[in-house]
Design a protein that fits this description.
Elements lengths: L1 E8 L7 E7 L6 E10 L2 H8 L8 E2 L3 E9 L11 E4 L9 H4 L14 E7 L4 E5 L8 E5 L3 E3 L6 H22 L7 E4 L3 H12 L5 E5 L5 H7 L3 E4 L4 H8 L5 E6 L4 H9 L1 E9 L13 H7 L2 E4 L7 H14 L8 E5 L4 H9 L5 E5 L1
Parallel strand pairs: 4-8, 11-12, 11-14, 12-13, 14-15, 15-16, 17-18
Antiparallel strand pairs: 1-2, 1-4, 2-7, 3-5, 3-9, 3-18, 5-6, 6-10, 7-8
Length: 361
């Protein structure tokens, strides 16, 4: 077995800590990847604070990139030395959803909070967040969980492509299909929300209205491409209508994952407009909407799972845009940290500070 340092949380609400973990041997169809960078995503925090309820002990982390160091028998997708981004929802390509053009809803690849893989040094079986457990020096994953990226792509950017950028960009391009000239509202300016802002502006949307509870996010919003910034308040609906000729936004993207912000997005969207929920919330946080309002407003409410994307094709395309300078991610990383600094990054995230923190190995 290979012994590596990893960030482990023992139970819900416990403080994550760096611990040694034994990885399993690389089996047929599997690869071992040395992680070079891993982004701190709100989904990781949700597995610590009880929003999600995975099994424990749990190795956190799922937004990552690294270099392949070993391949198992029968692997044809990658080779030793390849630079790869990790895919936390790999498609099987065989189930009904995959064969009907919705690989992001794959019966086998999507929605698993954690899988067992390896053990702690004291012998306890360890689980991996979203099947990856990427806050670790190395991981062992199925070959369909790696996607090749260019060798000249910065590791931090490669990591973010696998979650924040793909999720936000896909929500705009694939789920909502924002057209040039459409007005867009984005609630919540973490890594995903800022990626939505960038994609909306690239799609030709105007205005692009960015909203956050923290006024300090204004500079980040503008760097991402927002035309307007609004601090979240009870007057949000009227603020948005003031910026959209009195109608409300054509498209609203909720990137927080809370019933209150979903309702706020709904109220700030014009009649006949679209509300896209990108944030992942609690099972017991129920959204209440008036039956009459649903009928009379003619709005559409939907979610965007992993950007309604096929990572196998879209991650390489996004990577090419970054390398070519057509897509800038400079504004997304506000802190580069070590593995032991992740709990402090969670605290910043909970306070609404910064964009993405990235662990650099």
């Amino acid at each position: 077995m290979t012994r590596v340092a990893a960030l482990v949380v023992r139970e819900a609400g416990a403080a994550p800590a760096v611990a040694e973990v034994d990885l399993p041997e690389v089996g047929p169809g599997q690869v071992r990847v040395r992680i070079r960078a891993a982004g701190v995503c709100h989904s990781d925090l949700s597995m610590v604070n009880g929003t999600l309820e995975p099994p424990y002990p749990l190795v956190l982390g799922h937004e990552a990139a690294g270099q392949v160091v070993e391949v198992g028998a029968g692997v044809s997708r990658t080779t030793v030395g390849a630079h790869v981004a990790l895919n936390w929802a790999p498609a099987c390509r065989r189930c009904w959803f995959c064969t009907h053009g919705e690989p992001w809803l794959c019966e086998h690849g999507a929605g698993a909070a954690a899988v067992a893989n390896g053990s702690t040094v004291d012998g306890a079986p360890v689980h991996l967040a979203l099947g990856l457990g990427a806050f670790a020096e190395q991981v062992v994953v199925p070959e369909n969980a790696v996607v090749g990226v260019p060798e000249d792509l910065d590791w931090s950017w490669a990591a973010l492509l696998g979650c924040a950028v793909l999720t936000g960009t896909g929500a705009v391009r694939n789920t909502a299909r924002v057209a040039p000239g459409a007005s867009v509202l984005v609630l919540g300016l973490g890594g995903v929300g800022l990626s939505v802002v960038t994609a909306a502006r690239a799609a030709g949307a105007s205005p692009v209205i960015a909203v956050d509870v923290s006024p300090d996010k204004k500079a980040l919003a503008e760097a991402a491409g927002a035309t307007d910034f609004v601090v979240a308040a009870d007057t949000l609906s009227s603020d948005v209508r003031r910026l959209t000729s009195g109608r409300g936004a054509d498209h609203s993207f909720e990137c927080v994952g809370r019933a209150a912000t979903i309702r706020a997005a709904w109220r700030a969207t014009r009649r006949g407009g679209q509300v896209t929920v990108v944030g992942m919330g609690r099972a017991d946080d129920l959204v209440q909407l008036s039956a009459l309002d649903i009928f009379s407003s003619a709005r559409t409410l939907r979610s965007s799972v992993y950007g309604s994307s096929d990572p196998d094709s879209e991650i390489p395309a996004l990577a090419r845009d970054v390398v070519a300078g057509a897509l800038s991610l400079d504004h997304l990383v506000t802190d580069r940290i070590g593995l032991g600094d992740v709990p402090a990054a969670f605290d910043r995230m909970a306070r609404g500070e910064g964009a993405r923190s990235v662990v650099v190995f």
